[in-house]
Amino acid sequence: MSALSALPFLKPVHLRSPRSSPGGQRRHTLPASEFRCLSPEDAVSVFEIEREAFISVSGDCPLHLDEIRHFLNLCPELSLGWFEEGRLVAFIIGSLWDQERLSQAALTLHKPQGSAVHIHVLAVHRTVRQQGKGSILMWRYLQHLRCLPFARRALLMCEPFLVPFYHKCGFEALGPCEVTVGDMAFVEMQHPVRGHAFMRRNSGC
């Protein structure tokens, strides 16, 4: 069984009622809203959203297209996309890390034996921003991680102005991050992730 089919909260949150064709036969429609893990085939859509969201602000992207494909090939289960009528509108991409704090190597490496999930990027399409989608997607992503037996905590680095957003999502600041990108400095934050056995007993995972 795939990880996707085993996680009930990744199923579409609302499905449109099937429409009837003039001949009375039902035809399939895309779900109005759906959460699922991403695949390498989603990489271009992911990069288009990310590029628009970040280049205008910081002049660069956390992940470039080849890096997106790299992580979606290695660890697609650590990603989550929000699709509306088949179109990607928001996403998160993560990988595993095996140290207490993030280092420069964490930007490009996936450590399969690690227990910390490094959240590389969260981005929302410009047409649906200011609707709370980032917070909802992060909540869904943390629920997803709680059903992965190896995940113990989530780590991320963000610019200081984003600390209040992630604090509302349940993250705590660990202090300045060792990682720098150009002249940009970051705050490192973490969120505990409960074990698989606990969640299986309490949430049906």
UniProtKB/TrEMBL annotation:
GO cellular component: cytoplasm
Catalytic activity: a 2-arylethylamine + acetyl-CoA = an N-acetyl-2-arylethylamine + CoA + H(+)
Cited InterPro entries: Acyl_CoA_acyltransferase (IPR016181), GNAT_dom (IPR000182), SNAT-like (IPR051635)
Pathway: Aromatic compound metabolism; melatonin biosynthesis; melatonin from serotonin: step 1/2
EC number: 2.3.1.87
Enzyme class per UniProt: transferase
Domain of life: Eukaryota
A single MF term (Gene Ontology): aralkylamine N-acetyltransferase activity
Gene Ontology biological process terms, A to Z: circadian rhythm; melatonin biosynthetic process; response to light stimulus
Subcellular localization, as worded in the UniProt entry: Cytoplasm
Keyword terms: Acyltransferase, Biological rhythms, Cytoplasm, Melatonin biosynthesis, Phosphoprotein, Transferase
Pfam families on file: Acetyltransf_1
N-acetyltransferase domain ranges (all copies): 33-194
Family: Belongs to the acetyltransferase family. AANAT subfamily.
Name this polypeptide is given: Serotonin N-acetyltransferase
